[in-house]
Design goal:
Layout lengths: L1 H9 L9 H10 L13 H15 L4 E8 L5 E9 L2 E8 L3 E6 L2 E6 L5 E5 L19 E9 L2 E8 L6 E10 L2 E11 L4 E11 L13
Antiparallel strand pairs: 1-2, 1-11, 2-3, 3-4, 4-5, 5-6, 7-8, 8-9, 9-10, 10-11
Length: about 220
């Protein structure tokens, strides 16, 4: 079983966007093979994880355009903003909506009808993005590291309750420089969601108003 888990966790490269959902479901099934942290991984994979930790903890901000896919073929696009411990999504399609994640919660406001929704991220894989500083050991499982040509992705789960879901972070990796280009996930009900990021700008000043929860 250990050999099987090891082969599965080391398998594969970065897939085309249409296959990401399949890869995420495969990764979710690997959670039973994983242990907390990443000591169980090969030395090269641990090196890549350290690179990702250093990259994320070295960021002061990200802003980008996004395209979203989600359950039941839900689609959307808009603008994405991130600073350590917080992120915001401003949707233009399908509805004018603003979503702010911070302090363990996601708050969404539909500007068309004024409806406000509060969601807890404490048992949702997207909550891993709210950690600062970011460290993928102890209470986090690294379930998979996958390399492709000029690309890298890692899959993560909560070590104490991995059945709650899986988060996969996707990066371009050009001449040793990482840049976040995708955030994919599978929740505890195996519903897939994901953001593909475009026109990414890093370490540019962001107004604090981006991260004030909508009223």
């Amino acid at each position: 079983m250990k050999d099987l888990c090891s082969r599965l966790m080391r398998y594969g490269a970065i897939y085309h966007v249409r296959l990401w959902s399949v890869l995420l479901v495969m990764s979710l099934s690997l959670i039973g093979c994983a242990t907390a942290g990443y000591d169980h991984l090969a030395a090269g994979e641990r090196h890549d994880i350290h690179r990702v930790e250093a990259y994320l903890n070295g960021l002061s901000s990200i802003q980008a355009q996004f395209a979203q896919d989600g359950p039941a073929q839900q689609q959307g696009d808009g603008r994405f903003f991130y600073v350590p411990g917080r992120f915001e999504m401003v949707y233009d399609v399908p509805h004018a909506t603003r979503a702010v994640a911070r302090d363990g919660h996601l708050i969404l406001r539909n500007d068309d009808n004024g409806a406000v929704t509060h969601l807890s991220l404490k048992r949702n894989p997207m909550g891993l993005l709210l950690r600062h500083p970011i460290s993928f050991d102890k209470d986090v499982q690294v379930t998979q590291v996958a390399r492709g040509e000029e690309s890298l992705q890692i899959s993560l789960a909560e070590a104490n309750d991995p059945s709650q879901g899986l988060l996969t972070l996707q990066f371009s990796d050009v001449r040793g420089k990482l840049s976040l280009i995708g955030i994919q996930g599978v929740d505890g009900r195996h519903h897939h969601f994901g953001l593909s990021l475009f026109d990414v700008q890093e370490n540019q000043p962001l107004d604090e108003s981006h991260f004030i929860p909508p009223a």
